[in-house]
Amino acid sequence: MATIREIYSAQTIQDRIHELGKEISHDYAEHEKPVVIGVMKGAFCFLADLVRNISAKDPLQIEFVRLSSYGAGKESSGHVQAPWLDLPDIRDRHILVVEDIIDSGRTAKFFLEYLKDQFSPKTLKMAVFLDKPSRRVVPCQPDYTGFSINDLFVVGYGLDYAENYRELPFLGELSGIEEG
Ligand code: IMP
Ligand code: MG
Protein backbone atom coordinates (compact mmCIF):
# COMPACT_ATOMS: atom_id res chain seq x y z
CA MET A 1 0.00 0.00 0.00
CA ALA A 2 1.32 3.45 -0.89
CA THR A 3 2.04 5.64 2.10
CA ILE A 4 3.24 9.23 2.24
CA ARG A 5 5.17 10.49 5.24
CA GLU A 6 5.38 14.26 5.56
CA ILE A 7 8.91 15.65 5.43
CA TYR A 8 8.29 19.39 5.07
CA SER A 9 4.96 20.98 5.93
CA ALA A 10 3.32 23.65 3.77
CA GLN A 11 4.36 26.26 6.35
CA THR A 12 7.99 25.09 6.49
CA ILE A 13 8.12 25.29 2.69
CA GLN A 14 6.71 28.82 2.66
CA ASP A 15 9.16 29.97 5.34
CA ARG A 16 12.13 28.63 3.35
CA ILE A 17 10.89 30.17 0.10
CA HIS A 18 10.55 33.50 1.87
CA GLU A 19 14.26 33.32 2.77
CA LEU A 20 15.26 32.25 -0.74
CA GLY A 21 13.22 35.11 -2.19
CA LYS A 22 15.11 37.60 -0.03
CA GLU A 23 18.46 36.18 -1.13
CA ILE A 24 17.50 36.27 -4.82
CA SER A 25 16.01 39.78 -4.52
CA HIS A 26 19.30 40.95 -3.06
CA ASP A 27 21.41 39.31 -5.80
CA TYR A 28 19.16 40.55 -8.60
CA ALA A 29 18.62 44.04 -7.19
CA GLU A 30 20.60 45.70 -9.99
CA HIS A 31 19.89 43.21 -12.79
CA GLU A 32 17.98 44.59 -15.76
CA LYS A 33 14.98 42.68 -17.04
CA PRO A 34 15.61 39.24 -15.47
CA VAL A 35 13.98 36.20 -17.08
CA VAL A 36 12.76 33.35 -14.89
CA ILE A 37 12.31 30.01 -16.66
CA GLY A 38 10.23 27.37 -14.92
CA VAL A 39 10.81 23.73 -15.83
CA MET A 40 7.46 21.98 -16.12
CA LYS A 41 5.82 20.13 -14.74
CA GLY A 42 7.51 19.67 -11.38
CA ALA A 43 8.45 23.30 -10.71
CA PHE A 44 4.98 24.81 -11.01
CA CYS A 45 4.29 25.19 -7.27
CA PHE A 46 7.82 26.31 -6.40
CA LEU A 47 7.95 28.85 -9.23
CA ALA A 48 4.55 30.32 -8.33
CA ASP A 49 5.58 30.84 -4.70
CA LEU A 50 9.17 31.86 -5.38
CA VAL A 51 8.42 34.66 -7.86
CA ARG A 52 5.94 36.17 -5.41
CA ASN A 53 8.82 36.45 -2.93
CA ILE A 54 11.20 38.21 -5.34
CA SER A 55 11.39 41.92 -5.82
CA ALA A 56 14.00 43.14 -8.29
CA LYS A 57 14.70 46.51 -9.89
CA ASP A 58 12.84 45.49 -13.04
CA PRO A 59 9.75 43.31 -13.34
CA LEU A 60 10.35 39.62 -14.02
CA GLN A 61 9.65 37.97 -17.35
CA ILE A 62 8.37 34.45 -16.74
CA GLU A 63 8.73 31.64 -19.27
CA PHE A 64 8.19 27.91 -19.17
CA VAL A 65 9.70 24.86 -20.81
CA ARG A 66 8.82 21.25 -20.36
CA LEU A 67 11.59 18.73 -19.86
CA SER A 68 11.39 15.16 -18.73
CA SER A 69 13.74 12.32 -18.19
CA TYR A 70 11.52 9.69 -19.77
CA GLY A 71 9.91 7.05 -17.61
CA ALA A 72 7.02 6.78 -15.19
CA GLY A 73 8.81 5.00 -12.35
CA LYS A 74 11.10 6.16 -9.60
CA GLU A 75 14.28 5.95 -11.67
CA SER A 76 15.05 8.45 -14.39
CA SER A 77 15.90 6.86 -17.74
CA GLY A 78 18.99 8.98 -18.12
CA HIS A 79 17.58 10.28 -21.38
CA VAL A 80 16.42 13.91 -21.25
CA GLN A 81 13.48 14.80 -23.48
CA ALA A 82 12.22 18.27 -24.28
CA PRO A 83 8.52 18.03 -25.21
CA TRP A 84 8.17 21.86 -25.02
CA LEU A 85 11.18 24.05 -25.58
CA ASP A 86 9.70 27.12 -27.17
CA LEU A 87 11.35 30.26 -25.78
CA PRO A 88 11.20 33.81 -27.13
CA ASP A 89 14.35 35.76 -27.94
CA ILE A 90 16.03 36.10 -24.56
CA ARG A 91 19.57 36.72 -25.76
CA ASP A 92 21.93 38.59 -23.40
CA ARG A 93 19.56 38.55 -20.47
CA HIS A 94 19.90 37.55 -16.83
CA ILE A 95 18.35 34.07 -16.70
CA LEU A 96 17.21 32.25 -13.58
CA VAL A 97 16.16 28.62 -14.13
CA VAL A 98 13.67 27.23 -11.61
CA GLU A 99 13.66 23.44 -11.18
CA ASP A 100 11.83 21.10 -8.83
CA ILE A 101 14.70 18.78 -7.96
CA ILE A 102 18.25 17.97 -8.98
CA ASP A 103 18.81 14.24 -8.83
CA SER A 104 21.34 12.81 -11.32
CA GLY A 105 21.91 16.37 -12.61
CA ARG A 106 21.32 15.32 -16.23
CA THR A 107 18.22 17.47 -16.83
CA ALA A 108 19.82 20.57 -15.37
CA LYS A 109 23.07 20.06 -17.26
CA PHE A 110 21.22 19.59 -20.55
CA PHE A 111 19.10 22.71 -20.06
CA LEU A 112 21.86 25.01 -18.80
CA GLU A 113 24.05 24.06 -21.76
CA TYR A 114 21.15 24.61 -24.14
CA LEU A 115 20.51 28.09 -22.73
CA LYS A 116 24.21 29.02 -22.92
CA ASP A 117 24.41 27.91 -26.55
CA GLN A 118 21.18 29.53 -27.69
CA PHE A 119 21.09 32.79 -25.74
CA SER A 120 24.55 33.64 -24.33
CA PRO A 121 22.97 34.89 -21.10
CA LYS A 122 24.53 37.80 -19.17
CA THR A 123 24.16 35.64 -16.09
CA LEU A 124 22.74 32.14 -15.76
CA LYS A 125 21.69 30.79 -12.37
CA MET A 126 19.53 28.00 -11.10
CA ALA A 127 17.13 27.81 -8.17
CA VAL A 128 15.98 24.35 -7.11
CA PHE A 129 13.36 23.42 -4.58
CA LEU A 130 15.21 20.20 -3.65
CA ASP A 131 18.69 18.84 -4.09
CA LYS A 132 19.73 15.20 -3.71
CA PRO A 133 23.52 15.61 -3.86
CA SER A 134 24.21 11.93 -3.13
CA ARG A 135 22.54 10.93 -6.43
CA ARG A 136 24.65 13.05 -8.77
CA VAL A 137 25.86 11.40 -11.98
CA VAL A 138 26.98 14.57 -13.76
CA PRO A 139 28.40 17.55 -11.85
CA CYS A 140 25.85 20.26 -11.18
CA GLN A 141 25.73 22.84 -8.39
CA PRO A 142 22.53 24.86 -7.93
CA ASP A 143 22.93 28.53 -6.95
CA TYR A 144 19.85 28.53 -4.68
CA THR A 145 18.54 25.43 -2.91
CA GLY A 146 15.33 25.14 -0.93
CA PHE A 147 16.23 21.92 0.87
CA SER A 148 18.97 19.34 0.54
CA ILE A 149 17.61 15.83 1.12
CA ASN A 150 18.90 12.27 1.38
CA ASP A 151 18.22 9.67 -1.26
CA LEU A 152 14.45 9.42 -0.69
CA PHE A 153 11.70 9.36 -3.28
CA VAL A 154 9.51 12.36 -2.56
CA VAL A 155 6.17 13.62 -3.85
CA GLY A 156 3.95 16.67 -3.41
CA TYR A 157 4.37 20.40 -3.92
CA GLY A 158 4.67 19.79 -7.68
CA LEU A 159 6.63 16.53 -7.61
CA ASP A 160 4.97 13.38 -8.88
CA TYR A 161 5.07 9.64 -8.95
CA ALA A 162 3.66 8.49 -12.33
CA GLU A 163 1.86 11.89 -12.63
CA ASN A 164 0.16 11.58 -9.24
CA TYR A 165 0.46 13.57 -6.00
CA ARG A 166 1.66 16.89 -7.50
CA GLU A 167 -1.22 18.67 -5.77
CA LEU A 168 -0.19 17.88 -2.18
CA PRO A 169 0.58 21.12 -0.32
CA PHE A 170 3.44 19.47 1.62
CA LEU A 171 6.47 17.37 0.65
CA GLY A 172 6.37 13.70 1.63
CA GLU A 173 8.33 10.52 1.22
CA LEU A 174 6.48 7.94 -0.86
CA SER A 175 6.88 4.31 0.04
CA GLY A 176 5.06 1.04 -0.50
CA ILE A 177 4.96 1.27 -4.30
CA GLU A 178 5.62 -1.99 -6.12
CA GLU A 179 7.61 -1.32 -9.27
CA GLY A 180 7.26 -3.94 -11.97
P1 IMP B 1 17.74 14.54 -12.88
O1 IMP B 1 18.03 13.09 -12.59
O2 IMP B 1 18.57 15.48 -12.04
O3 IMP B 1 17.82 14.81 -14.35
O4 IMP B 1 16.25 14.80 -12.42
C1 IMP B 1 15.25 14.52 -13.31
C2 IMP B 1 13.87 14.60 -12.78
O5 IMP B 1 13.64 13.42 -12.01
C3 IMP B 1 13.46 15.72 -11.86
O6 IMP B 1 13.19 16.94 -12.50
C4 IMP B 1 12.18 15.12 -11.31
O7 IMP B 1 11.12 15.32 -12.24
C5 IMP B 1 12.51 13.65 -11.22
N1 IMP B 1 12.81 13.25 -9.84
C6 IMP B 1 14.01 12.98 -9.28
N2 IMP B 1 13.88 12.62 -7.99
C7 IMP B 1 12.55 12.66 -7.73
C8 IMP B 1 11.77 12.41 -6.56
O8 IMP B 1 12.25 12.08 -5.45
N3 IMP B 1 10.43 12.56 -6.69
C9 IMP B 1 9.83 12.94 -7.86
N4 IMP B 1 10.52 13.20 -8.97
C10 IMP B 1 11.87 13.06 -8.91
MG1 MG C 1 11.48 18.11 -13.20
Structure overview:
This protein has 180 residues and is of the alpha/beta class. The protein has one domain (3-71, 78-169): Rossmann fold (3-Layer(aba) Sandwich), CATH 3.40.50.2020. The protein contains 3 helices and 9 strands. The strands form 2 sheets. It has a 6-stranded mixed β-sheet with strand order 4-3-2-5-6-7, sandwiched between helices. The chain has a 3-stranded antiparallel β-sheet with strand order 1-9-8. Strand 5, helix 3 (106-119) and strand 6 (123-131) form a beta-alpha-beta unit. Magnesium ion binds next to loops.
Which helices and strands, and how do they pair?
Layout: E1 3-8, H1 10-27, E2 35-40, H2 44-51, E3 61-68, E4 81-84, E5 94-102, H3 106-119, E6 123-131, E7 144-148, E8 154-155, E9 171-175
Parallel strand pairs: 2-3, 2-5, 5-6, 6-7
Antiparallel strand pairs: 1-9, 3-4, 8-9
Based on secondary structure, the structural category is alpha/beta
What is the chains' assembly state? Answer: single chain
| Sheet with the most strands, sense and barrel status | 6 strands, mixed
Rg, alpha carbons? 16 Å
Indicate the CATH topology: Rossmann fold
Total domain units? 1
Bound molecules: inosinic acid, magnesium ion
Series of H and E elements: EHEHEEEHEEEE
List keywords for this structure.
180 residues; alpha/beta; Rossmann fold; 6-stranded mixed sheet; 3-stranded antiparallel sheet; 3 helices; globular; binds inosinic acid; binds magnesium ion
Compact overview of the structure:
22% of the residues lie in helices and 30% in strands. The chain contains three helices and nine strands; from the N terminus they run E-H-E-H-E-E-E-H-E-E-E-E.
